[in-house]
Structure formats: structure tokens, C-alpha cells
């Protein structure tokens, strides 16, 4: 529709893919049209977000439709909330079935920032959000004999793979609904070429029939695009701003 195109143009939202979900202009639209969790709506107000940022306008609705995506938008444009809001809405409420959302970050510092944004936006929801600490503690906490009372994992690739490769595995990925790779361009950068294999291990471990994947990045690179076209299901690509800004 013309209106939709005008909205995308106004916010420099470029999209590619089939059956593209429409963007929304406001958080209240996410509430009425997408049943964004009421507690999230409250928390958005409490943290002072008035309107969604351009990447949030489009990426949230794409994820709400459970479509796999590659989302590129400049640093500081609100990519974290763009995946937190739909992911938490899909979980609905805390469970005892282990991790259902896994976010992979390239560095410990970025993982910590994402963890904090989860804590802030999930205030009052009761969701259990975790990071992986010392290996022996982690395997007690997350392993097969633990009560599985956690919902969201934010981690660097090394730490997750370390747990996955223990016998028995120190964590199960069998109930993961969203695998989110943040700053995925950094993870593909030269010098860290080991990450391709790490990503493959994590990707394979998240093998439930209903798992969805979302890749977020500040830059649009050929390598990332190729990986997504090859490994994601009917991918939607979103770029905000110039193609490489
Ligand atoms: P990115 O991951 O794209 O670099 P972040 O998710 O770290 O960006 O967000 C950058 C800053 O913008 C954070 O302080 C975050 O709390 C804030 N922010 C996110 N969404 C909004 C919004 N809709 N309105 C205002 N501020 C926002
Ligand atoms: P990262 O935070 O990126 O995993 P670290 O410096 O913590 O990097 O990990 C260094 C190495 O220790 C990793 O390459 C990995 O093989 C191993 N390792 C991974 N997870 C853990 C863990 N939970 N505890 C101890 N060692 C780990
Ligand atoms: Mg970010």
C-alpha cells in the first residue's frame, strides 16, 4: 500500500523478502494489533520510550509474525528492544522448560548491556534472564538435573559452546523458540573466522522444529547476507538508513 511505502520511505526503512509484514508507527499499535504484553507496554513508558525507532517499527512486526530476519541499523538505533519486545511477547510468561530465547553477542561487554536491557524491559514479568558464569556453576545451574526455571540466555559464543559440548550437555537448546545473533557482522569479521564454525554449532544445537532465527547488525555486509540467505528460512532483510551506514 502507498501509505506503508510512505512510512518506510520517511524513516529510510528498506525491506526485502516475500509477504512482508507492515511496519507500525507507534507502540500502541503494537499493543492493539500485535498483543504486545501489557507489562511491556508499561515498562516502555517507565523507561521513557515514546515512539518506536525505525528499526523497531519494522523488525518488531516481522518477528511478531515469526519470520526469520536480518536486521541492519546504525549503532544506537534501538536494535536491542527491537528483538526483546517480540521475543518476550512470544514467551507470554515464565516457564520451567529451560531457555526459550537465546541471544548470542560477540563480546562479554555487549552481552552484559543486552542482559541489562532485558532486565529493564522485563521488569515485573517474572521472566528469568541468565548469563553464563563459571563453567562448573553453569552446568549445575542449567544442566539436565536443574529445575530448568529460566527463560532467556544472553551469552558469548564460546561460553555457550563450552556448555553444549560437555557430556552430558550443560544446557539444553531443545525448547529454544528464538535464536538471536546480535552484532552478527562482528562475529563474521576476519581474525575471528572461527566464529563461522561456532555459529554452526549453536545453529545446529537449536534444532527444535519451531525455532526461529534473527540476526542483528550495525552494517550490511555481503558475508552476512550470504550466510542468512543460505541458512535462514524465507528471510526478511531490513536495512535502516543507507545500505552500509
Ligand atoms: P543498538 O543496539 O542499535 O546500538 P541499543 O539497543 O543499544 O542500540 O539502544 C541505544 C539506546 O537507545 C539505549 O539507551 C536504549 O535504551 C535507547 N532506546 C531504544 N529504543 C528506544 C526508543 N524507542 N525510544 C527512545 N530510546 C530508545
Ligand atoms: P568468552 O567470554 O568469549 O566465552 P572467555 O575468555 O570467557 O571468552 O573464554 C575463554 C575460553 O574458556 C573459551 O574459549 C572457552 O573454551 C572456555 N570457556 C567457555 N566457557 C567457559 C566457562 N563458562 N567457564 C570457563 N571456561 C569457559
Ligand atoms: Mg546493539
Automatic annotation (TrEMBL):
Residue ranges annotated for the Helicase ATP-binding domain, each copy included: 60-238
Domain of life: Eukaryota
Family in the record: Belongs to the DEAD box helicase family. DDX52/ROK1 subfamily.
Name used for this protein in its record: Probable ATP-dependent RNA helicase DDX52
Residues of the full protein shown: 30 to 274 of 529
